[in-house]
């Protein structure tokens, strides 16, 4: 991913499998059929993620049973180790990368050691979880960090932990001062530039368009010199397409087989046809961005002479008469920039009206 010039599109299946392996397999198929680069799930055990007293988010209260706790909701959405292995193998058979966001150290080790996953996605909720960030830095080759609910200071602190883990290893003593020193060091900055992608994100489902603030993605890139991208929770596909035009190198978007399904994230997700349309639009914008050099394109060259103008006689001219000239198509003759020079000369021969002036 670090050297791929294309936008890396992550189809976020998340927990939209509703605990069903068969539904999860169909999500892999839908992501592959849409042309996404990766399909991503979430790996957790509820007992390691939340307390039994943890409340639901407001959007979860709307989209799930009010009598169900967050703990019970998440426990019903767990995938087993065997499920993960099946999904990873299925993704490989469909030629799409398999990713999953771990939410605890055991899940991280399973993904990296058990499944050989080299890229780890950090959820917005873990950007302040320094011990877990350090574990991720020590386990993963590449790290994608979502930054919903964050300030630049939060992002810098997280990047400091990653830089420390990348460059100091397992035996160094961690701590705020050590993280700050690693972040400021040349080797730390080089490691971050090489191994980290930071995703701008608005953590609401669906996210209000007027709270997206896409310009913040560029602010992150300028502040930290890392690759940036966008994790989208808005309705529709136009905002991630716009993020592509603004320079996102990674786009992540939730999708589902059916928005009407029960569960916390379905209503803020794309359906398969919409996911396919989003990927296609991203690829078109990506091609349209070009290399930034302003020059005539191959297709324009055939139109240039037709559209541009040359100097022609404004009326019939006799030999020796001063030029009475104007500018008309085609652009195959003397450039209109020579207008004033030619006005000072006399015609060497007679010209018919609209006849091109000799150079």
Largest β-sheet summary = 8 strands, parallel
Tell me what portion of residues adopts beta-strand conformation.
Answer: 5-15%
Helicity level: 40-55%
CATH class membership of the largest domain? Alpha Beta
Shape: elongated
The chain-level structural class is alpha/beta
Measured between the Cα atoms of the first and last residue, the distance is: 55 Å
Number of domains: 2
CATH architecture of the largest domain: Alpha-Beta Barrel
Task: Report on this structure.
There is one protein chain. The chain has 359 residues and is of the alpha/beta class. Helices cover 42% and strands 15% of the residues. The chain contains 15 helices and ten strands. The chain is elongated. It folds into two domains: 8-289, TIM Barrel (Alpha-Beta Barrel), CATH 3.20.20; 298-343, no CATH class.
Question: What is the gist of this entry?
Answer:
By secondary structure, the chain is α/β, with parallel strands linked by helices.
Descriptive tags:
elongated, TIM Barrel, alpha/beta, two-stranded antiparallel ribbon, 15 helices
Describe the secondary structure blueprint for this structure.
Blueprint: E1 8-14, H1 21-34, E2 38-43, H2 46-49, H3 58-63, H4 70-75, H5 81-93, E3 97-102, H6 105-114, E4 119-122, H7 130-139, E5 142-146, H8 152-168, H9 176-184, H10 186-195, E6 196-201, H11 215-224, E7 227-232, H12 238-245, E8 250-254, H13 272-289, H14 298-307, E9 310-313, E10 325-328, H15 339-343
Parallel strand pairs: 1-2, 1-8, 2-3, 4-5, 5-6, 6-7, 7-8
Antiparallel strand pairs: 9-10
